[in-house]
Batch of 2 targets.
Target 1
Amino acid sequence: MSYNKDLKPESLMMSYGYKPELSEGSIKCPIFQTSTFVFQTAEEGKSFFELAYGKREKLPNEELGLIYSRINNPDLEILENRLCLWDKAEDCAVFESGMSAITTVMLEFLKPGDLILHSSPVYGGTDHFLHHFLPKMGIETLGFSPGETESEILKRLEESGKADKLALIHIETPANPTNTLIDIAMCRSIADKFSTEDEKVPLAVDNTYMGPLWQHPLKHGADLVIYSATKYIGGHSDVIAGAVLGNKDLMMRVKTLRTFLGNMAGPWTGWLLMRSLETLKVRMDQQQANAKVVADFLVKHPKVKSVNYLGLIKKNTPEHKIYKKQYEGSGAMLSFDIDGGEREAFQFLNALKLIRLAVSLGSTESLAEHPFTMTHAGIEPEDAIAMGITESLLRISVGVENVEDLIADVAQALDKV
Ligand SMILES: *Cc1c(COP(=O)(O)O)cnc(C)c1O
């Protein structure tokens, strides 16, 4: 590309990686709704396949030619190039869902007999795959909580008797829905302790909650960044998609497995996400600005016991140290404990008018839900409560609405409790 890479990503989201002259001058990338691509000659087809199958090295400036939409498609390739800019990643793979991104990484880097270390809590779907599918493949799982120190986690690994089988670390920070933080550099250090010359233990970070704007895990030592692109990247509650980013070598493995699982996103999803990326920065900035105001309102309200929001983490605490080091913003996700239990929480949710009662997050509209009985219903109640996912906890994903209207809605709903 002839673009200046020093430009900020938001300046490049409308044009980066797209050549209008290849599409009749169309200013926007068309939807390449096609399963396959015509080769100009048999020799060209042969040469594309040689690259696709790694039978020869790429020539200088050579790009893989278009072959078949399970392997490559312009709507996915351009989208992937644009996503790379936010995390300064070498390569990206887009998937048909966040779950397919997560499970493809786990299937690629784990084999029977291995151990995966993960933070806890993790997204419900991830939790299910870890605890109900991976054991069927003979893969063991070991969880740790936010707040555990490196030596405590190392001790836990030694006690599992499987430390030498550690093959992947998967974390989510901030934890959903409690907003507790995990130190990525600490996890890097653990991964390094169990890596050998030939076999590195990759560290994967699910950055759905904060990315791609407010946390850049690769910078802090992660090998792979994973997204549910359904959330902020898509941002309009109208598409399910996922993405994985990392260096060329690891992404080659991820993309190869994607080719054979066939779980890449389709051209229409690629096009929708490119459209979404054009407004990513303005949407997320506005959502964050609104979330700060909502958090400040909640924290002072007599019917609210406590608010979990990154912008409200107490100074001079270990969490605040991680916050300052790892985050470039406080985000737009918050949760709070209402005075009472499920009854009061439900009264609040049922009284909301502007904010919609739905799971998911990161979209233009504000959404509220009750993690204990909804997104995190799969966790054993004692475990959930130990994690801070109580019957009185409510989660809000703050959208782009007028903030005074949002506050008025929260205030009137709290009044009905
Ligand atoms: C939504 C979500 C997922 C799953 O993504 P889908 O696009 O729904 O498959 C994974 N991780 C986190 C943190 C999520 O919020």
Note: The longest strand covers residues 166-172.
Target 2
Amino acid sequence: MRDFAAELEQRREAGLYRVRRQMSGPHQPLLTADGDPVLAFCSNDYLGLASHPELVAAATSGLDEHGLGGASSHLICGHHGEHHRLEDKLAAFTRRSGALFFSTGYMANVGVITALAGKGDTIFSDALNHASIIDGCRLSGASVRIYPHGDTATLAEQLAATEGHKLVVTDGVFSMDGDIAPLRELATLCRRHDALLVVDDAHGFGCIGPQGRGAVLEAGLTEDNVPLVVGTLGKAFGTSGAFVAGPPLLLDYLVQKARSYIYTTAMPPALATASCRSVELVEQDEHRRTHLTRLINRFRSEAATMGYDLMPSATPIQPIMIGDPREAIRLSGELEKRGLLVTAIRPPTVPHGESRLRVTFSASHTDEQLDQLLAALRESAPKIVADRALSSV
Ligand SMILES: *Cc1c(COP(=O)(O)O)cnc(C)c1O
């Protein structure tokens, strides 16, 4: 048998071992982690809706009215009116013909990619795409061509050199860098080379675009240019589940062929009830996005003056680049000593040599909480920056 214990030990030595902290209480910036109070800057609850009383109330009334369990898959008897109502709302929210509700974003990506490309086809995938896209590509049996991050010139060459059915897939907002894909160029290329474009905007929906309608609409693109968008409800929407939105033909095709849609139990209808309310809050409450933008801008201008290496991101994802995974853990530890929870992101989630602290902001952070983060970063900065200078000589 393989020496699993030795492999884990190697991981530990390389600074790549992962642990789970146990949280208690509702999700919000002030959490209890393993029994200690912490101020967290690492969740994806970008609009602070995860514990919003109106969503909790909607879920509670959904439970009273519709019970708890999903009971079966959507194609047997699990497709509830509440799921359908949510799909209609998501279609309207994304300004698309229709939407299909999946259990998770992971399953949506795997389902969409494996259904729409297979043996003999070619998938073109950005080098920094999310793991669920990578897994969908691998499972599909199609040949996969990775293009360098955001590099539309290389993608154009690859597309021109390829025959047959082509699918291009990209994150909208990239989950670990926080930058946005060159969507207009991608849409133009896909049209020119008759390729199907799929954009996974898990981190864009709720945060960017008009009324939070995402990166594709922000770029002025519609269903005509970008046939399919994928979104999760587990991030800015503050609930759980995911969706694919686009034209009826493709959605119908997915209902017939996406195995991660077909062979799983439908989510609790009450969750859809809460998500319906969440879509309304996301659309209506502009003040959350305004506050979030202010926090992001303040953080960027102040952290940069401390010598930290930031990425060109205007989204709530604000990585502090470190490089070595052990150094990333050390800075994360320095912050934790000061009561802050900011997780170190290491390979294989990011490329080797690109370990980082992934700082994320939520509309539920106050200015005082941002001050706390900045003060802790200021105290930890001299050491980190000096160490970086040393390791580069
Ligand atoms: C989080 C994420 C997903 C997965 O969504 P879940 O609903 O959490 O499974 C998919 N794509 C991207 C880009 C993500 O960041």
Note: Residues 104-106, 109, 130, 132, 171, 175, 200, 202-203, 232, 234, 242 surround pyridoxal-5'-phosphate (CB under 6 Å).
